[in-house]
Amino acid sequence: MINFQSVSKIYNSHSTALQDVSFDVKPREFVSLTGRSGAGKSTVIKLLIGEDKPTKGRIFFGQYEVNKLKDKDLPAFRRHIGVIFQDFRLLPTKTAYENIAFALEVSGRAQSEIQELVPQVLDMVGLSDRAKNFPNELSGGERQRVAIARAMIHRPEVIIADEPTGNLDPLNTYEIIKLLEKINELGTTVVLATHDKNVINSLEKRVITLDRGRVIRDEEKGKYILV
Amino acid sequence: MFTILSRIIHYGFKNFWRSGSLATATVAIMILASLVFAGLILFGFVSDQAAASIQDKIDISVYFKTNTSEDQVLNVKQSLESLSEVKSVEYISRDRALEVFRAAHKEDSVISQGINELNVNPLEASLNIKARRPDQYAAIVEYLNSPNLVSYIDSISYSKNQAVIDRLGGIVNNVKRGGLALTLLLGLIAGLVVFNTIRLAIYSNREEIGIMRVVGASNALVRGPLVIQGIIAGVLAAVFSLIIATPIVYFISPQLKVFIPGLEVFQYFYTHLAAIFLYQLIFAVGIGAFSSFVAVRRFLKN
C-alpha cells in the first residue's frame, strides 16, 4: 500500500533529513515510526502526504506515485488519507462539528450524509456534547479527538499520525492510542510517528526506527530501542 | 459543482462573520479607499467644471466691414457652424451692437448725444465664436483669413487676445492633465492599501489554508470563500462610504461654490448617486475579490 524506495531528502550539504530510506506498509498494518527528535520521522510523514518532495527516490501510495504529484492533484490524493498532527491543526473558526464535517464537505458529500455521519463519529470519539464548541473551548485531549474524528470520517485507507500525543498527558495519550488501535481494528492502516517509549512498547506492533535519516531497525512487534 | 459552489458561498459568509475584528478592520480600510475613490469622482467633476468655466470665458469676435450685407454675415456664420472645431457662433447685428452700446453708455451723456447726432450706425456686425477647445482658435482664425472671406472682415479679436487665450488654454489643459494624473495616482495608492490589507488578513489565515489543504480541500474550496469575503467587504465598504460621503458632500458643496460660481457638487452627487455607487461598488468589490484571489495564490502550493 505504501512503498518508500531509496528515498533521500537533502536540504543542503549540511542538512540531510533522510538518506536512502526504503520500507513497505501493507494494508491494515499498524506501523510506528520512531527515533530521536530530528531522526527524520516528520520528514517521512511530510513526504508521504506530499507536503514536500524527496531529493531522490520514489514514494508510492496505492495507485499514486506521490513524488510526482502536481499541486493540483494533491487535494484529491489527500482525500485518501487522514492526517493527525501534534498541534491538532483544527480550523479555529469552525466548531468541532464543522471541523469534522469539513473533511466530508471537501469531497462534495451530500449534506444529508454529513448530518448522519458526523454525530456518529463524534459519539465514537466521545465528544457528542462538545459538537458546538470551538477548538479554543476544548482541552488538548478533546482537540486531538476532534482531529482523529476528522481524519477518519471519510473512511480513508490510511491514517497518518505525526506525534499525536506529543502535547497530551498520560491519560489522554492512552485514550488517543486506544482510539488509533480501534480504528486499525476496523480495517484502516495506521502510520504513527512518535518518540514516546511507553506508547511504542505498549502497542506491541511493527516498529521502524530511524536515526539520523536512516532506517536502523524494522521489526514486527518491535520495542523502543535507539542504540 | 452546485454543492461546492453553495459551500464556497456559505463558508465565505460564515468566515466573514466569525472573523470579527479582522473583517471590521479590512472593511474600515476599504471604506477609506472607497471614500478616496468617491472623492476622485467628485474631483473629476469639479476640475471639469473649473476647466469649463475658464473655457467658457474664451471666445473670439469677428467684425465685418459695414458694407457687408446681413446675408453675407449669416452665410459666414453658417459656414463656421459647419466646422468641427466650432462649438457655437453668436451673431450680433449692427442694430443689436448699437443697442448694446447705447445701453452700456446711457449714463454718459456725451457719448449718447454723439451717437444720436450721427445719422448712420457706425458699429459693425460681428460673430462671437466659441471653439470646442482653446487650441482650436488658431485654426478657426486661419479659416476666416481664407481669400473668399477676408474681404468682408474688418478685424478679428484673436490677434489682440492670443496670448491670454493661449495661457488660459494652457491652464485648462494643465487642470485636466493634473486632475487625471492625481486621480490615477491616488486611485493606485488606495488600491494598493486595500490590496496590502487583504494580503495581511490572508497571511494571518495561512495556517488555516494549510490545514484545509491537508484535509484535501481543492484550491477552489480554499480560495473561493476568501474571494467571497473580499466581495462582502467590498459591498459593505461601498455602502458605508456612500453613507459617510453624503453629508460630507452636502456640507462642502456651498464652500466650493465660492471658488467656482455655479458649481453644484451636491446636486451632481445627488443626481449621479446611482452611478457613483455603482462605480464605488465596482472599485471596492473588484479590488476586494482581486486582492483575495491573488493574495491566496502563494499559499496554495503543497
Q: What is Rg of chain B?
A: 31 Å
Query: The CATH topology of the largest domain in chain A, please?
Result: Rossmann fold
Major sheet description of chain A: 6 strands, mixed
Order of helices and strands of chain B: HHEHEHHEHHEHHHHH
CATH superfamily of the largest domain in chain A: P-loop containing nucleotide triphosphate hydrolases
Number of domains of chain A: 2
List the helices and strands of chain A in order.
Answer: EEEHEEHEHHHEHEHEE
Largest sheet of chain B: 4 strands, antiparallel
**Count of discrete alpha- or pi-helical segments spanning 4 or more residues of chain B:** 12
Approximately what portion of the residues of chain A adopt beta-strand conformation?
Answer: 25-35%
Query: Total helix count of chain A?
Result: 7
Which class of secondary structure composition applies to the elements of chain A? alpha/beta
Most residues in contact: chain pair: A-B, 27 and 23 residues
Number of strands of chain B: 4
Rg of chain A, Cα atoms, Å: 17 Å
The CATH level-2 architecture of the largest domain in chain A is identified as 3-Layer(aba) Sandwich
Folded structure, characterized:
The complex is a heterodimer of chains A (227) and B (302). By secondary structure, chain A is of the alpha/beta class. Helices cover 32% and strands 27% of the residues of chain A. Chain A is built from seven helices and ten strands. In chain A, the strands form two sheets. Chain A has a six-stranded mixed beta sheet, sandwiched between helices. A four-stranded antiparallel beta sheet of chain A has the order 2-1-4-5, with helices on one face. In chain A, helix 3 (96-105) crosses helix 4 and helix 4 (111-124) packs across helix 5. The mean pLDDT of chain A is 91. Chain B has a four-stranded antiparallel beta sheet. The longest helix of chain B is centred in the middle third of the chain and has 46 residues, at 158-203. Chain B contains twelve helices and four strands; from the N terminus they run H-H-E-H-E-H-H-E-H-H-E-H-H-H-H-H. In chain B, helix 1 crosses helix 10 and helix 2 crosses helix 12. Chain B folds into two domains: 2-54 and 170-300, no CATH class; 66-151, Alpha-Beta Plaits (2-Layer Sandwich).
